[in-house]
């Protein structure tokens, strides 16, 4: 029985729920299973592709509960119980090609996703991070534009964090027709206009009849900001991107020190 006023707990994965070795502590797993048993919906919200999130949904026994995952930074919403996709949007081929031209002009790497895997024309240490995170094959092609003759859910621009900050400012000023945010210091995520974690979270909240005041959201980076500000209780883990530190209601322990478990124990599993 849900004895807390909160109905939904929304969690970013990398650098928030997951420790640096991509594991979840036993304390956190137990806390999140207990949360769901109380009737509170636990929603995983990540920039990751859906398939790169499912192992964590299984760890949290989410198939036993009527909940959802927000993947691709808000571009896809799917059921953890049935795997049914209830929402999906994508960038057009034209938008992807224009982003490729931008990436060449500004000297950054670009990747997108297809049925074959992660598509790129180049290789870099930052692309390696995405390959390790997602465990999706790398499909390196001679010509990005020739290969990408379809719409795709999102693109990521990748380069050294200091330079990527500058590129982010330019892209945001030039492309107000797109949603742009950083998920890691070296990942600049690009989605269709109006698509972010908060937009998909709002859709889920309305589906269940929840108000923002009944939602807790926890994150650590720029692509989490929209949902952290949307939720009635917005929380950063201690390893939050420094310039965002003042933009949440609470700061808890880091991802390596059970920050998510701290949130659950403070707001939901109140003894």
Helix- and strand-based class? alpha/beta
| CATH architecture designation of the largest domain | 3-Layer(aba) Sandwich
Based on Cα principal axes, name the global outline: globular
Named CATH topology of the largest domain: Rossmann fold
What is the straight-line distance between the termini? 14 Å
Strand content: 15-25%
Please name the fourth-level CATH homologous superfamily of the largest domain: HAD superfamily/HAD-like
Q: Mean pLDDT score, rounded?
A: 96
**H/I helix tally:** 10
Q: How helical, in percent, are the residues? A: 25-40%
- For the largest sheet, list the strands in their spatial order: 5-4-3-2-1-12-13-14
Number of strands: 14
Tell me the name of the CATH class of the largest domain: Alpha Beta
**Sheet with the most strands, sense and barrel status:** 8 strands, mixed
The H-and-E topology, N to C, reads as EHHEHEEEHEEHEHEHEEHEHEEH
Number of domains: 2
What Rg, in angstroms, do the CA atoms define? Answer: 18 Å
Poorly predicted sequence stretches spanning 5 or more consecutive residues: none
